[in-house]
Amino acid sequence: MSKQTCLYRVSVKALVLNEAGDKFLITKEDTGIWEIPGGGLEWGRDPHQELSREIKEEMDLETTWIADTPSYFLFAPSLFHKDFQIANILYETKLKDLNFTPSPECREIAFVNKDSIEGLDVCPQIKDLAQQFYERTIKK
Questions:
Q1: Distance between CA atoms of 37 and 15, rounded to whole angstroms?
Q2: CATH superfamily to which 7-138 belongs
Q3: 95 and 62 Cβ atoms separated by less than 8 Å
Q4: 108 CB-contact burial (10 Å; exposed 0-12 / middle 13-18 / buried 19+)
């Protein structure tokens, strides 16, 4: 019997909700793929500080609040590295405003839900989030 190795890259992601709380924010990258804002969590770093840094770096936006505990944990294959999976930890996050500065990691923004991602080129975890988000919001 051989022992298999499973490697995960941990990412912290921002769950930014619209005012009604029924949609979440995604960003379109230079690649044309829509993603959840955030990025990789380096070993020994604080998730809240890294999430604020990623949002500032990618969108030039100020984070005003990040929840103490994560709202979702999502797992997906890496689009660019076949050797590992991505473990996404999503924290509900509030931003000062949405006046972003375009960058290679954020060309456009949109608030979406399960129905509005149809036809968009989204990362696999967005489909999972949309389904879980839908199930959670209809139970309220």
A1: 8
A2: Nucleoside Triphosphate Pyrophosphohydrolase (3.90.79.10)
A3: yes
A4: exposed
Q: What's the per-residue H, E or C state across the chain?
A: CCCCCCEEEEEEEEECECCCCCCEEEEECCCCCEECCEEECCCCCCHHHHHHHHHHHHHCCCEEEECCCCCEEEEEECCCCCCEEEEEEEEEEEECCCCCCCECCECEEEEECCCCCCCCCECHHHHHHHHHHHHHHHCC
Residue 71 phi, psi (nearest 5):
-95, -35
For 45-75, the pLDDT digits (tens) are 899 999 999 999 999 999 999 999 999 999 8
Structure tokens at 83: 């050797």
pLDDT, averaged across the chain = 89
Read off the tokens for 18: 């619209």
